[in-house]
Amino acid sequence: MNKLILGRYLPGDSLIYRLDPRGKFLITFYFIGIVFLANNLVSYAFLLLFVFFAVYISKVSISFFIKGLRPMLWLILFTVMLQAFFTPSNHPIWHWAFLSLSKEGLVIAGYIFIRFILIIFISTLLTLTTTPIEISDSIESILKPLRVIKFPVSQVALMLSIALRFVPLLIDETIKIMDAQRARGVDFGEGGLIKRIKSFVPILIPLFVSSFSIAYDLAIAMESRGYKDGEGRTKYRILHWSKRDNITVVVMIAITVVLLFLRSYK
Amino acid sequence: MQIEFKNVTHSYESNNPLSGLGLADVSCKIEDKAFTAIVGKTGSGKSTLVRHINALLKPTSGEIKVGDRVITPETNNKNLKPLRKQVGMVFQFPESQLFEDTVEKDIMFGPKNFGIPEEEAREAAHKMIKVVGLSEDYLDRSPFDLSGGQMRRVAIAGVLASDPETIILDEPTAGLDPVGRKEIMDLFKEQQQNGKTIILITHNMDDVANYAETMMVMHDSRLRAVGTPKDIFNDQDLLDKKLISLPQSAVFAQKLAKKNFKFESLPITINELTAEIKQQIHGE
Question: Cross-referenced PROSITE patterns, in alphabetical order (chain B) (predicted)?
Fold first, then answer.
């Protein structure tokens, strides 16, 4: 349960931590977009270099990023294998039934692998260095223009921050309930598939019951403190856009330009 | 069943900046068929300590002996059922572990997991529901229709039904009314008289004074003191450092001591207190 690094904040301090979360959020998505512009070895190498540089200046140990890969390992392997064995080619190196291995296939598989690394590393960087509450604040701020079409921005942001707040709470609750059922003789991860699935019933039902009661308590606590809706509320945490955020945007533009140049490089 | 901790250290999530020490070099013996209370502040390691007894947690170093069974850092997760049958555990707010559609099925859940045949498990459910002070009519009801206090009793019945030799209680009376709390505590005392070993985590010093024979004080992941409640509550050093507080009878005795009463050691229960007062008023 604690092994899930993606989506988990790690307290720390560095340039990346201090960036405005709105900027970090948008830049992360922008970067994931431009990853798909890369089309040759040089451009992928360039992006990898950038990501490792970002990881370096974030002062977060690289081991956290490698751990972040672990839950995705099977997906990555599956996709890479698919590309490697099913890329049609006129010059296969190795051939068996419907499987064939070719130079082109291996190259594409390699690129896919790098693409996964890039995307997972950069999004892990965002979540490791940005508190969930900063992320939901920045989503609220980014969605603000939608108010014009009567989109309930502040309610959505509140729902989001409550949902994020509930994640650690529910993890704790799950561990607690699992311990209680283990003490009553449940073996998780033993026996056949059906038995394993069945062993989750004694966790899921108590978990549902307690999340409803926590949600109900929370609603009452909010109402008793006078919460109506988000309209016109002032902010406790105010986001500041500063010079370093401008610089980051300039860097991203520069990277895009270099990338477009490298695309045509053979 | 005697339980023995030998230099047990437990750290949470090693190799991680978020790691923390749960237990630091704890060694102690918990006597067979005794009533032992563990006290200490929130986060002092009480719950971490007892979770080692049924191997929900394993030590980072050191070993725990539970009867003939030895738990070391290398103990693997298979074949722990016999141990967990012997060591029953009532968690904080145990009502949150209920999940079956009837009370009877929920009480039978533990025994059936431990391989007790259906019929015997049903008998145990019928017996235990009465032991925890509810009538057999409750067996057919859904646990989610009961009040909080009744759910607590059902959950406790569910642990007792497996007939464990050792019962670990993690603040079993938190949030109960005074009458309910006394009934539940008396119930555990009765279990002890029937030959069970009881280990109680609590913040209630009166419960310690009234029920426990041995008292352990945890502080900052370490075991700071072990002894009879009488000795521990008379330990000025522990009181000065605010690691423990006094039971009501002792507080009352302290006030009397300012008004010409003399106590060689502080009485910790109502009975001791009244006996002392009687003696001092009527005199020899």
Answer: ABC_TRANSPORTER_1, ABC_TRANSPORTER_2
